[in-house]
Amino acid sequence: MKNSRIKSSQWRWPLGVGLFILIILLVPLVGGLFWQYLIANVLLLSLFALSFNVLFGMAGYLSFGQGAFYAVGAYVTGLLMLAKLPLLVSILLGFVAAGVLALILGFFCVRHTQVYFALLTLAFGMMVHAIVWKWSSVTGGDDGLIGIPRGSLGVPGVISVQLEPFTNYYYFLVIVTLFAIYFLYRIHISPFGLVLRGIRENSGRVDFAGVAARKYILIAFIIAGLFAGLAGALMAPLEKTVGPAVAHWTKSGEPVFAALIGGPFVFSGPILGALIYIGLKEFIVRLTQYWLLIFGIVLLTIVLSFRGGILGFIQEQIQKKRSMY
After folding, report:
1. What is the pLDDT of residues 251-276, one digit of tens each?
2. How many CB atoms lie within 10 A of CB 49?
3. Structural domain includes residue 79
4. Residue 172 belongs to what domain range?
5. Which of 59, 32, 28, 55 is nearest to 170 (CA)?
6. Distance of alpha carbon 300 from alpha carbon 322, whole angstroms
7. CB-based burial of residue 6 (10 Å sphere; 0-12 exposed, 13-18 middle, 19+ buried)?
């Protein structure tokens, strides 16, 4: 009986992943531009939430400053695209810029733990927001960057794919995001991820075992910043505009909610949380002008009702039933 359960779980996981990817790729064929835009936002929030979860779900460090790296990736990519640099180069440099910022801020943040770490990340995040808001000669201030092109993708003289049509950019975003999610999954199941989970459970024992916990947290902080920056970099050509709101602390709250809704201790939890977050928001906005109040109440109800998120709750119930037999 036990062996049959193991075998069934071994094929259910890849089957579910394959079905998920197939649905995403078929969206342009069966749905309009609205559904493509909606799925693109779900994927970006999934990547954003998974980057946050490298710190929170894996290492137990709550960061309220992920919006800063998201904004840096978006602004650097937007500025470079407006300067007529190629799309891939612009996104790559936005990705790297977010990582450099994460290295600098992480050097100060990882020296603290618990509430002090959270407040320090929040302070740094609001500092980035203030810079974006005030440095109007570069960032556009309150107006932000407008008219960001998507450009083309291809090898000069060999093949060139125009990404200005939304569907073409949708496929590009899907491919890049799925590869990034897979990379984060490899981190999750790696020895590095195991050490991070050990730090989450008991950092003192990890230090006693001779592992430099602070170094691992700094690396996790940089990884989280890099992939938050990648999400922002991909968002800039998608929206064709970037404003100061992407650096606000409320933007940093989105991955927190997505992770808590889906389950921070299950890798796919933030992905499910992102789907629920975006779906509920789109649904409630159409019902009432007081959508923000209703949306907040619904999110809090979900978070408080499901211990460990929805997937965490389901996993716990399955384990309880198995223990009864």
Report:
1. 999 999 999 999 999 999 999 999 99
2. 31
3. yes
4. 31-248
5. 28
6. 30
7. exposed
* Per-residue buried b or exposed e for 164-199, using 16+ beta carbons within 10 Å of the residue's own CB: eeeebbbbbbbebbbebbeebeebbeeeebebbebb
With respect to residue 277, please indicate whether it lies within any of the assigned structural domains: no
The CA distances from residue 71 to 117, 216, 220, 226, 238, in Å, are 20, 24, 19, 12, 14
Q: Tell me what pLDDT residue 301 has.
A: 87
What's at 32, amino acid-wise? G
Take residue 258 and report the two structure tokens written for it: 């997505």
Which of 197, 214, 233, 200 lies closest to 101 in space, CA to CA?
A: 233
Count of beta carbons in the 10 Å neighbourhood of residue 253: 14
Assess if residue 15 is contained within a domain. Answer: no
Nearest residue to 234 (alpha-carbon basis) of 99, 92, 101: 92
In angstroms, the CA 152 to CA 168 distance is 10
Longest dimension (CA), the chain: 67
Say how many Å lie between the first and final Cα of the chain, rounded: 10
Q: Cα–Cα distances in Å, from 195 out to 155, 182, 204, 216? A: 41, 19, 12, 8
Please give the helix or strand (H or E) that residue 158 lies within, else none.
none
Spatial contact of 100 and 165, defined as CB atoms under 8 Å apart: no
Structure token digits, residue 320: 């309880």
- Tell me the C-alpha distance between 167 and 118, whole Å: 39
Where is mean pLDDT largest: 18-32, 72-86, 154-168?
72-86
Domain assignment present for 172: yes
Q: Is the pLDDT of residue 179 over 70?
A: yes
> Nearest 5 degrees, angle CA 142-CA 144-CA 147?
145
DSSP state for residue 315 in the 8-state scheme: H
Number of folded domains in the chain?
1
Rounded Cα distance, 246 and 238, in Å: 14
Closest CA to 57 of 211, 319, 253, 255: 255
Asked whether the beta carbons of 161 and 149 are under 8 A apart, the reply is no
Q: Which residue has the tokens 């060999």?
A: 158
